[in-house]
Amino acid sequence: MAAAVRLVLLVLLLLGPGVWGQAEPPRDSLREELVITPLPSGDVAATFQFRTRWDSELQREGVSHYRLFPKALGQLISKYSLRELHLSLTQGFWRTRYWGTPFLQAPSGAELWAWFQDSVTDVDESWKELSNVLSGIFCASLNFIDSTNTVTPTASFKPLGLANGTDHSFLRYAVLPREVVCTENLTPWKKLLPCSSKAGLSVLLKADRLFHTSYHSQAVHIRPVCRNARCTSVSWELRQTLSVVFDAFITGQGKKDWSLFRMFSRTLTEPCPLASESRVYVDITSSGQDNETLEVYPPPLTTYQDVILGTRKTYAVYDLLDAAVVSTSRSLNVQLKWKRPPENGYIHYQPAQDRMQPHLLEMLIQLPANSITKVSIQFERALLKWTEYTPDPNHGFYVSPSVLSALVPSVVAAKPGDWEESPLFNSLFPVSDGSSYFVRLYTEPLLVSLPTPDFSMPYNVVCLTCTVVAVCYGSFYNLLTRTFQIEEPRKGGLVKRLANLIRRARGVPPL
Q1: CA distance 141 to 371
Q2: Over the stretch 455-500, which tens digit does the pLDDT of each residue have?
Q3: In Å, what is the CA distance from 463 to each residue of 76, 469, 476?
Q4: What is the pTM of this model?
Q5: Which of the residues 23, 120, 219, 407 has the least number of beta carbons within 10 Å of its own beta carbon?
Q6: DSSP string, 190-252
Q7: Longest C-alpha distance within the chain, in Å?
C-alpha cells in the first residue's frame, strides 16, 4: 500500500500543479478573414488572410510541441536562423488600371526573399538550402534559385516585422517569372492551415474554382512582432494570404450579380473551431456613392469603416462566431445585387462556351461629335484539336466582323410620307422622323494566328508505323505459310563423273 501511495505522489509531481489549478491559456491564436471587393471593371476580388500568432521565441526556446503554428515552418526558422520569410506564387498579373490598387502586390511567377539573423556566417549557403527545402514543402521549382538569379537589394525590401538592424548583407531576393502555379502548389499551402480545408473560410478554397480566374496569388509571410506595447518579448506571426479575381460576367452568366456560391461553388456553414476570429468583409463603399445601387444580402448586422490605401472604405461585416449569422439558414451565402442597372447597363454580354457558342458583346453608347472611341477585348489563344484545323492552318483563323448600328443626324430633313414612294432604300430602315437616318456598318474580319502543330509529324509516324507493321507482319506470315522440305544429297557430281571416266580409261576401278 505504501508503494502505491508513493507511485501516485510521483505521478502527481510529474503532472505539476497546473493539473489541479486553472489550465494555462494557449500561447497561440488564429484569425481568419475574407475580404470581397467589387472592382471598377465589374470583376470581383476575393482576398483570404489567415493569421497565426505564436507567443514563442523559436530560436531561443527548445520548441518540440506545435499546436497552430506549422511545424515545418517553425523548424525552418530555427534551423536557418531566419528573421523574416516572404514567399508568393502568382498566376496572372494584377491590372491596376482596371482593378485599382491591391492589398498585396506580387509579381507573376514565384518570388522569395528572406532576412537572416546576424549569427549566420554563410548567408549564401543558407539561402541555397532554404530554397531547396521550400521547394519540397510547396512543390515548386524554387530549387532553381542560385547565384545567377539572386540579388541583395540595398534600398528595397526593408524588414516588415521587428528589426534590430538593417544590414542588407543578410537579405536575399530572387524571382522565377516562368513558375506556373497549379493545384500541386495549393494543396501543401492549405495543409499549413490549422483547419486545413475542413472548416471555416478554407472550405471555399476549391481548386477548380480558384484557378478558373483572371488572377491567382498565394503567399506566405513570416515575421517577428512585438508581444506587448513595450515590446519586452517577441512573438512570431504567420500570414497566409490568397487573392483571386473572378470575372463577374462569366461567373454570373452575363450578369454583374455575384454570390459566394457562384464564385466558389460552396457556402459557409461554420467557423474554424481553432479560430478566435472568423469574419467576412464585403466592400460596400460604392453602394453609398452610387445612390444605393448595390444591395447586399443577407443584411449585415454590423459595418466597419477604415482608411485603406488612402481611401475611406465601408465594409459589411459577417462574423461567423456570431450564432445569429449562420443559425437562420445554417449556411452563409453572401450575395450582391444591383438595385437598378448602372450607367452601362444596356451592355449585353454572353460568354462563350468551348465548341458550343461564341462570345456576344453588345453596347449601347452615345458618342459625341468629332470623337474617337476604342473598344479593346482581352483574349487568350487556345490550342485546337488536330481535327479542327483547316487545310491551310498557317494562314490563320478568321473572326467575324463587328457590327456598328448608328442613328446619324440628317442635314436635310425628309418627309415621312415620301419613304414608301422612294425608289431607294429609305423604306428598308424607317425612322420616326426625318431628323436622322439609320446606318449599319461592318468592320473587316479579323485574322488571328493560332499555335499550329507540326503536321508532318503524323505523316512520319504513319509511314514509320506502316513500315514496321509490314516488316513484322510479312516475316511472321512467311514463317507461318512456308513449307520446308529436306533434300537428299545426290550420289555424284560432275567432278566425280570425270574422275571415273579417267579411271576407266586407265583400267582402274571407279570411285
Answers
A1: 50
A2: 777 788 889 999 999 999 888 888 888 877 776 666 667 778 888 8
A3: 56, 10, 20
A4: 0.70
A5: 23
A6: HHTSTTTTTSGGGGG--HHHHTSSSEEEEEEEEEEEESSTT--SEEEEEEEEEEEEE-HHHHT
A7: 142
